[in-house]
Amino acid sequence: MEHMKFETPDMVAGNIEKIGALFPAAITEMRGEDGQIKKGINFEVLKQLLSRDVVDGDECYEFTWVGKKAAMAEAARPITKTLRPVKEDSRDWDTTQNLYIEGDNLEVLKILQESYLGKVKMIYIDPPYNTGHDFIYRDKFQRSQQEENEQMGMYDEDENQMFENTESNGRFHSDWCSMMYSRLTLARNLLTDDGAVVISIDDNEYSNLRKTCDEIFGASNFVAVFPWRKRTAKTDVPFGVSQDYEWILCYAKSSNFIARVNGTERRYYETPDYPGKPWRIHDLTKQTTASERPNSYFTIVNPKTGEEYPANPNRTWAISKETFEDYYKQNRIVFPGDYSFLNISKPALRYWKEDDMDKAGDLFGLMSVSTKLPDDVGMSLDGTKEITRIFDGKVFSFPKTVPLLKFFVDICTKTDKEAIILDFFSGSATTAHAVMQLNAEDGGHRKFIMVQLPEPCDEKSEAFKAGYKNICEIGKERIRRAGDKIQQARLETISTIQHEWDQTTYYVEHQEECDKLGKLPDEFYEKEFPIIDTGFRVFRVDSSNMKDVYYQPEELEQQSMFDLVSNIKDDRTDLDLLYACLLDWGVEIHLPHTSTDLDGCTVHNVDNGALMACFSPNVPRSVVEYMAKQQPLRAVFRDSAFASDDAKINVTEIFKNLSPDTKVKVI
User: Fold this and answer.
1) Which end of the chain is more exposed for a tag (fewer CB within 10 A), N or C?
2) Tell me, what's the pLDDT at 105?
3) Which CATH number fits domain 82-262+375-486: 3.40.50.300, 3.40.50.150, 3.40.47.10, 3.40.720.10?
4) Distance CA 585, CA 633 (A)
């Protein structure tokens, strides 16, 4: 049986394979740092293969800084860390599909690469702004095994996982760019093909962020910049100009992304000549002059009446003469007088309702998004007031507002209310709050993934005095309290509806009959006021579940052989192992999970057979047969659960007979 590898994807090896499939001549062999021969890329050959001319010289347009190559390498470098479930900090563990992950977001993004590849519809981040006083992640691009063992949480042995990136630092911009580049590179992989990333930024790194996103997402996938007014004008400012706006950048994964907001409903007509086929009309002119669009400067003649409609030299037709003839044959041209209810003075273009379908699906009643944000999105002070009301005290300064985040979640997921939204600089978890609130308002089932480094609260801060040791504790508590308010609002609405029903004439006249039925049926409330998922599963980044020697057997000392009865660390639980297997196998960790006790063993079942696992030290044949009969897609056991190779072969044969399509692995 194959072993689980418990290592994030080696994207360098994957990229080499992809390049080799396209350009075999560019593949070569080279000796790695370990002295072993491995595949590599001959970049000189590759450059020549991609050029029609002789490649000579290094001049080209590029955006670079000190440390860029290291940041690119870091994004591709695999790690062996994992996510450990923290059930005691979670809410509604068994039913929720939301995630809250504590740890370095670079490591989290790597860990999520398999399970959430191409599954996140929207990413919102509000990263450190690099003002000279904000803390920046210090990514250590090369670590020894000793350092890797010591760095289990947010600090290394010198407690400098984060540092203040002051302007006196010679790498002031470089450190920030490196920090963002590796994270955005990994984040892009997680987006759906029609997904988008939305990033808040101020003036200090705006231009660098634009260039970075142009490179990672492609300049053609730039969507828009939304100006957000964060405050009213201040007086004591440099040059006498108050910088009251921040910028919210949006980049798409591909041209398939489309944003929409609610708009006025289009008016459709149903006429006897086209029964059951609604249609509407659209202006057939375009704001171009005759000199700009000569092919569209012609006279339209109504073939049925001979009436002529000359083009306006300052506003030509939107189509050419040839296109007009094609549209007429398709019955897409409507003339004045064709329908008595239409008040038009010139030809119009007919759109059938099915023509209003596009890449995002049925957009009836929706319209394009303006970069002018709605007036009710609020400013920074409003965000502070929101969280202060939730906590009855000031525990976090200047978070983004719920209406602002709700607006962006809405426009990015208007046609997909089952979407996953990721925020890997989650701070006080405003994004999670916005997702839950939007679901409550439109009946959606969007899911959130929040990622946050457990940055300590200043011991002099109100948050620390209130008992919150780090930002993660604030974020989790905000989700709990906001969720409680949302659920309470739902119950109050239901209570009001029930009270109004009790006052109706029908109830009064048929009280005895109604009392037998009780209150309005639950199905009514579940349909009109669906239950909102306000729970979340908490996970924490930690070292691998496997003993270090599992990955580096060449370092094994002879006297350690007797310690290797199990290759799993002694403090790891079944849940630790289960979720590590899900991540390694590329299965989402928000899926439902049940367990069954059988013959002294616990059998775990994720999403009704997406993966089944038994991590008991001894697994009898009856348990193996039970699992095989469920015909799961994947099954996993401890390697040490089977005393001999013959026992492993028996497991393989049982699955081959009862569930031949199941993939079986051991840890």
Assistant:
1) N
2) 96
3) 3.40.50.150
4) 11
